[in-house]
């Protein structure tokens, strides 16, 4: 039965992985299409802008008429051709200058407001600004990176403590004997989170196997039995059943469908 359940879980995990790869491929294609459409739109806008700046056929005909009327006198005939372009250039330049002036006004506006504040408020303003700067500098301080061994110990400690507490509160309704807890803790530190796998979809490292997964597979309990009193003593059945019940619930809540066999092949 357990073999069938494991086979079904592996099959579901493989289907989920293939589905995720297909969704990633479709997302990449959609992004490429959107990018191509954006480039085409920009090209069309650039072509429209160039066409708008080019002289119209009516302006060219008027320019030719002025050439004929002047009888080819040279410079006077050439001026009407450049008149339309020079006027558009002037208008374009005036728009740019007005836009720059507006931007300068918006930048200078806060300075004017600060200058108009009364003297008492100006005395407290520098201290407040310093506090803001200090807060930003504190936020920018990078967190100290911890080693893999320290991270592994942290993960095991948090997950193991939560598992024991929920088992005592929800299943046993009493505390486990200390010898059993110590045996389980020793087994967890020996077996859990020994491998890590780089998940390219989420761009992060995945550490496995978890304490929960080991408990569901009985591996943790079998190992703990080696450290429980003497070799002849068996690990209490009520503890095993209670631990596995809580572990199965937590595994379903976490939606952990990772294919550990596949990750183990690529794990570091």
* Shape assignment: elongated
- Main sheet summary: 2 strands, antiparallel
Which range best describes the helical content: under 10%, 10-25%, 25-40%, 40-55%, 55-70% or over 70%? over 70%
Distance between the termini: 32 Å
Radius of gyration: 37 Å
Give helix and strand order, one letter per element, not per position.
HHHHHHEEHHHH
Counting DSSP H or I runs of 4 or more residues, the number of helices is: 10
Unreliable runs: 69-85, 110-118, 128-142
**From the helix content, strand content and strand pairing, which structural class follows?**
mainly alpha
Q: Averaging pLDDT over every residue, what do you get? A: 76
Strand runs, count:
2
The share of residues in extended strands comes to under 5%
* Strand line-up across the major sheet: 1-2
Key features?
single chain, 268 residues, mainly alpha, two-stranded antiparallel ribbon, 77% helix
Report on this structure:
By secondary structure, this protein is mostly helical. The protein contains 10 helices and 2 strands, in the order ααααααββαααα. Strands 1-2 form a two-stranded antiparallel sheet. About 15% of the residues have low confidence.
């Amino acid at each position: 039965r357990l073999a069938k359940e494991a086979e079904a879980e592996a099959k579901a995990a493989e289907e989920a992985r293939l589905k995720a790869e297909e969704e990633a491929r479709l997302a990449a294609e959609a992004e490429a299409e959107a990018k191509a459409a954006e480039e085409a739109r920009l090209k069309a806008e650039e072509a429209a802008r160039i066409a708008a700046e080019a002289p119209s056929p009516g302006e060219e005909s008027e320019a030719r008429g002025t050439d004929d009327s002047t009888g080819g006198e040279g410079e006077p005939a050439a001026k009407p051709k450049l008149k339309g372009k020079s006027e558009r250039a002037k208008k374009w330049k005036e728009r740019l200058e007005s836009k720059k002036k507006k931007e300068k006004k918006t930048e200078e506006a806060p300075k004017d407001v600060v200058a108009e504040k009364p003297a008492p408020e100006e005395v407290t303003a520098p201290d407040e600004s310093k506090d803001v700067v200090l807060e930003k500098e504190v936020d920018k301080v990078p967190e100290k990176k911890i080693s893999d061994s320290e991270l592994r110990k942290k993960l095991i400690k948090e997950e193991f403590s939560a598992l024991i507490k929920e088992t005592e509160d929800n299943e046993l309704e009493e505390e486990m004997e200390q010898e059993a807890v110590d045996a389980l803790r020793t087994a967890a530190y020996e077996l859990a989170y020994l491998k890590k796998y780089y998940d390219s979809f989420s761009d992060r490292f995945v550490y496995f196997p978890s304490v929960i997964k080991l408990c569901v597979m009985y591996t943790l309990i079998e190992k703990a039995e080696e450290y429980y009193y003497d070799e002849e003593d068996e690990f209490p059945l009520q503890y095993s059943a209670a631990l596995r019940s809580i572990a199965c619930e937590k595994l379903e809540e976490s939606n952990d469908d990772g294919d550990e066999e596949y990750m183990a092949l690529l794990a570091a």
